[in-house]
């Protein structure tokens, strides 16, 4: 049977090794709680190193220092979760547990009170473990594998403390100083603590890596300036909708939008003002669109919206609503004032009973409609393939300008000039 000193020193070595590995592998998460967790593992090692010398004449002092260090390690773990989840924490609360345990050891230093002391200390440690558990359970519906591994470590640590609370003989501080052999129950208790430390460290690294992977995925799929999906993500959503079986087909519309005179905004107001307009456009789209629609930045000052289950008439109504929202919300600011920013929208629609169409055709149609809206005076909506009898044209700004329906019929021979040959948009 292993002696108590050997068992404790094994846990000390494990804690220090885990702290080194966590500090090394988790250095990129240092500011997300990795530093606090590493400190907690070091403090666990200090605590068990003190408990490993329980046969010395300084047993009461070492016991107090050991449990204070152990409590400080738990508080450091709590701080790591607060930092990881960015939950505000008053630092003073972290000092309450170690100070309380130090006070308990001073007040209950008499050997006759060792059982009461052990139960009081374990009870306080259990409460702080429950604090960690509730931090994790706040995100119960979003907990990943890392959170569950960390939770398993917290549960094992709590179980070991509960055993010591109701079976004080499992505590080194209750055993007589002459005890140098560990019972099987005591060895099991230490094995549980050993596993709990590993699970907490591994769980935190898994949590941090999962967050890093999510951020990387977001960076790959999202436009950082507008907060909208990027072009590749929207194109995948469009293709997914077109790939549905024919019996599941629903009407589909694609809106291609462009900020009017955006080059003038950048030239006269500066690129920071232009970035604010782009960010405002992203916010406006998120506010105006229903959850089923997918809006994204198509490139430069162009935006795209994929609208499943949307007819041509509904798409035109939506586009008009977006134009009005842009006029009311988007402004370009410069030193002498500001002016409203408008958008032009090209719409292409696909009926539910239409033949199979590839995404490039829909995008080409929307692009041609957008160019025609620009050509007709900007700040308006054009629907590809519209005719005089289409009810979807009711309320179009183009009609109000008296420019005639001929601009909306889009002969098949019409081809949009290349971007290099196009005037300022």
UniProtKB/TrEMBL annotation:
GO BP terms in the entry: cell adhesion involved in single-species biofilm formation; negative regulation of bacterial-type flagellum-dependent cell motility
The protein, known as: diguanylate cyclase
Statement: the UniProt record of this protein carries the keyword Transmembrane: yes
Pfam families recorded: GGDEF
GO MF assignments: diguanylate cyclase activity
Entry GO terms, CC: plasma membrane
Entry's transmembrane regions: 6-25, 37-55, 61-80, 92-108, 148-167, 187-208
UniProt key word Transmembrane helix: yes
Catalytic activity: 2 GTP = 3',3'-c-di-GMP + 2 diphosphate
Assigned keywords, A-Z: Membrane, Transmembrane, Transmembrane helix
Record-linked SMART domains: GGDEF
Source organism of this protein record: Comamonas terrigena
Domain GGDEF: 250-386
Record-listed E.C. numbers: 2.7.7.65
